[in-house]
Amino acid sequence: MAPSPSIPNVQGNRHKRVTVHNSHGEELVGVLHETNSLELVIICHGFRSSKDRIPMVNLAASFEKEGISAFRFDLAGNGESEGSFQYGNYRREADDLRAIVEHFHEEECFIAAIVGHSKGGNAVLLYASKYKDVQTVVNISGRFNLERGIEGRLGRDFKEKIKQDGFIDVRDRKGRVEYRVTEESLMDRLTTDTRGACQSIPNSCRVLTIHGSMDETVPVEDAMEFAKNVSNHKVQIIEGADHEFTLHQDELASVVVAFVKAGLCGDYMAMPSQSCKRTSGHINSRY
């Protein structure tokens, strides 16, 4: 994922640092935007990103403004969380998300939605296919075809090189090693079955895929592949937006919040919700 500007971690009485241990005993660190609502939205970042970058901070703040609590956290090996960064880890990141969901279930929160950006989009979809206990999933700029995008990072001969050396070091423009790709982590990516996972998501789960028309990291065509393979699915293409929606943050947040709130107040309602009783500040759904 291309570098993006960092957004300072906003602290305050309603922003609480929360740590959760995953199934490997690693500490996952996150920030809870607390509104005292029954509902909670969990937000996952993308490849080599963190909870403190766009669009994660802006999305959490947008839900907070609507009176819905949100939790953005660092996946293992990223940001403040423990663990080592791995190139693949798609299914393991879905399991990190499971640890977060279980923690907030113990806190008696209702998980209104799981939202993921870029690689985080894959994590939320894999989660929905495996655990089948969420009613709303938002996939922002996720990659459907995981075989694509590898040559751009590892070079055309990446398969031969990793077979020979056992790893490939990815370097920045100054020649410094940014991260190491092992054969195991590469195969984790190549054997992750996105199509099968999407087809396993139950029809009771509403899925929204949002993509920017000017995304140069993941082609917009991938959004259409998600649409072909998820039974209860909507697509929203934001014209002119790049991979991180750098100049389209407000539009992105409006679409995401509207979709989540439509699920809470519509036919998909799974439990009584205080937020559905509010009459002010409602964002009308576009769907």
From TrEMBL:
Organism in which the protein naturally occurs: Anisodus tanguticus
Protein name: Serine aminopeptidase S33 domain-containing protein
Every Serine aminopeptidase S33 domain range: 39-148
Source taxonomy: Eukaryota, Viridiplantae, Streptophyta, Embryophyta, Tracheophyta
Transmembrane segments: none
